[in-house]
């Protein structure tokens, strides 16, 4: 075995030759590189090689041979010993003491061309390396562990680098079971078609185990449960981040729960959010995959899970919504008119899942509403927009190259001051949490009685004393004139009847609705989609059909306006005001962009 400390990404860190038992004259040279694993095959003098990228590898595991049943001979007809090795965990009692081999399993999810369509999809690939050069199992296992440790170190460095953490102080030197290594998963069993539990158990937990990431689970029990948990817990115990297994509604609760904390800024700076799509819309999950060119539609849960597990911390713009009665923060959309009405009124068809939106769209076109109002906005000029998009691309490139070269650059939040004085407050919250009740997963009105449990992971339930309704919204203050003041003279004003005004900060408001094709996750732009009354039904129909591909932006009567802020004063009733799917009071409101203040797990990928 060769070990090389050379800094070049293509120089092997470890190198070993492996043979394939079933194929004569076939030799594999396997090299662990900084960029991944190189498999170099030599057969009958012919050399081929393939690199499995580090970005596609989520973890590895050392195993040993499984003890064969006494009546099962290697050469007998029931044996499948020759093809697939039968392996067990290292501390399993089923280990075969007579086999000195040690196995290393490496789990990767690689991009493959999808033959039937002209797209791509992610597929699981397991690389199995069998170590048996030494006479003793312990020595072979030491070799396998050496490979595993080196690979784990590379993966950890990539994860830690992407989260802008101090490698020494955070993950690398902390025990695996330490709380800072954990994710918090918040699961809404009532999301979409109520499949979140099954998805958690059958799809997400196996991936977390392959990636060797411990986690805590909280299952929501009622509306705003997630919001209360976030508002009143010591969030710094989950430094790996918070993962939603649900829809955009739960993410909205989490973000607003954070903004209701005095230490909202520190919490946003420390926590990376992720989402596994289990809801009916899943706009954020799709927008994240779209931004890094990942093939979401083929397997939304797998792709979103990998975005998290191979994740890069990517900045996310928020919108600050303010009305007379409320201030909230949105990561997705603020709507008035047609789409908002469809969102709210189709709620009665929730059991159908996402088709509820299509069905209700048809109903709403037939009974089209016109809403009178006044829309004022601060448009972003074309030159400014070009500059913003360029900066967004630069940030993405920097984020990506950061994970490659491990050099330093500033977080998008670095301009905010850190609120160290709030440490005492967090201590208080921690003490409260330490005394809180802990339930098992299946005590939470569960439909099932057994759940896959992972080593060092906990199932949490909120203690009842967290249900405090006296809350105050903090978060970044407004930068625009108050609602009671007139809008500045350089703002543009549209007055009259509208079919809809819909504002978004990401590309998709649902997995099949590309409402703002040019939007990026942190371009500092609110994309206003405005349809004024007078649009023909044919064009409106074309617009709704075009939403799935983004073609609606070219339909006459549909305006897409990049703005920094806007104000809407409804003058007629009958419609709805909806923020990220939540129905708010029907009253004048204004919205402004808060650039890159939150962060989500994304993936290193090509720009779309
Ligand atoms: N145990 C529960 N029982 C009933 N409602 C719940 C429960 N837990 C959470 N909720 C509420 O369910 C609502 C919908 O949740 P979520 O966003 O996860 O799914 P969705 O609406 O189907 O998806 P999307 O928002 O993507 O359309 C949220 O407002 C949340 O507060």
UniProtKB/TrEMBL annotation:
GO terms for biological process: sphingosine biosynthetic process. It holds the Pfam family DAGK_cat. Gene3D superfamilies: 2.60.200.40, Probable inorganic polyphosphate/atp-NAD kinase, domain 1. GO terms for cellular component: cytoplasm; membrane. The keyword ATP-binding applies. Residues 178-325 form the DAGKc domain. PANTHER family: LD11247P-RELATED, SPHINGOSINE KINASE. This is DAGKc domain-containing protein. It comes from Bemisia tabaci (Sweetpotato whitefly).
């Amino acid at each position: 075995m060769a070990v090389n400390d050379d800094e070049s990404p293509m120089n092997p860190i470890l190198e070993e030759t492996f043979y394939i038992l079933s194929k004569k004259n076939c030799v594999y040279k396997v090299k662990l590189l900084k960029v991944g694993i190189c498999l170099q095959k030599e057969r009958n003098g012919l050399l081929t090689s393939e690199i499995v990228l580090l970005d596609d590898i989520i973890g590895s595991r050392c195993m040993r041979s499984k003890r064969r049943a006494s009546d099962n001979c290697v050469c007998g007809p029931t044996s499948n010993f020759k093809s697939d090795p039968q392996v067990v965990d290292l501390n399993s009692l089923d280990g075969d003491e007579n086999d000195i081999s040690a196995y290393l399993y490496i789990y990767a999810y690689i991009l493959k061309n999808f033959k039937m369509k002209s797209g791509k999809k992610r597929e699981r690939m397991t690389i199995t390396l069998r170590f048996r050069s030494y006479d003793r199992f312990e020595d072979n296992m030491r070799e396998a562990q050496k490979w595993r440790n080196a690979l784990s170190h590379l993966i950890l460095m990539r994860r830690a680098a992407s989260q802008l953490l101090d490698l020494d102080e955070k993950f690398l030197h902390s025990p695996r079971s330490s709380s800072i290594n954990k994710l918090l998963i918040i699961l809404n069993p009532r999301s979409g078609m109520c499949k979140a539990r099954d998805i958690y158990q059958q799809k997400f937990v196996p991936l977390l185990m392959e990636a060797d990431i411990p986690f805590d689970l909280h299952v929501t029990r009622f509306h705003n449960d997630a919001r209360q948990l976030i508002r009143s817990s010591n969030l710094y115990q989950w430094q790996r981040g918070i993962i939603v297994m649900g829809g955009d509604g739960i993410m909205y609760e989490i973000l607003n729960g954070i903004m209701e904390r005095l230490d909202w800024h520190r919490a946003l700076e420390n926590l990376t959010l992720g989402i596994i799509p289990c809801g009916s819309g899943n706009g954020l999950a799709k927008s994240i995959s779209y931004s890094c060119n990942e093939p979401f539609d083929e397997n939304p849960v797998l792709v979103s899970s990998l975005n998290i597990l191979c994740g890069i911390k990517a900045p996310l713009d928020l919108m600050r919504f303010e009305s007379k009665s409320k201030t909230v923060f949105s990561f997705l959309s603020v709507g008035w008119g047609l789409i908002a009405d469809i969102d709210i009124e189709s709620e009665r068809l929730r059991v159908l899942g996402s088709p509820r939106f299509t069905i209700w769209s048809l109903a709403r076109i037939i009974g089209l509403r016109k809403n009178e109002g006044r829309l004022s906005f601060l448009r972003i000029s074309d030159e400014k927009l070009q500059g913003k998009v360029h900066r967004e691309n630069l940030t993405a490139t920097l984020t990506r190259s950061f994970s490659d070269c491990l050099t330093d650059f500033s977080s998008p939040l670095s301009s905010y001051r850190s609120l160290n004085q709030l440490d005492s407050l967090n201590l208080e919250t921690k003490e409260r949490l330490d005394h809180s009740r802990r339930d098992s997963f299946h005590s939470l009105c569960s439909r099932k009685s057994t759940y896959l449990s992972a080593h060092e992971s906990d199932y949490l339930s909120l203690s009842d004393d967290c249900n405090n309704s006296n809350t105050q919204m903090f978060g970044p203050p407004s930068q625009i004139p108050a609602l009671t003041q007139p809008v500045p003279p350089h703002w543009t004003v549209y007055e009259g009847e509208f079919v809809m005004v819909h504002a978004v900060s990401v590309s998709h408001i649902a997995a099949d609705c590309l409402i703002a094709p040019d939007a990026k996750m942190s371009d500092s732009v609110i994309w206003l989609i405005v349809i004024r009354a007078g649009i023909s039904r044919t064009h409106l129909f074309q617009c709704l059909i075009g939403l799935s591909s983004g073609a609606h932006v070219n339909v006459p009567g549909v305006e897409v306006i990049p703005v920094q802020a806007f104000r809407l004063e409804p003058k007629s009733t009958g419609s709805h005001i909806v923020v990220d799917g939540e129905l708010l009071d029907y009253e004048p409101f204004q919205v402004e962009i808060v650039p890159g203040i939150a962060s989500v797990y994304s993936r290193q990928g090509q720009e779309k």
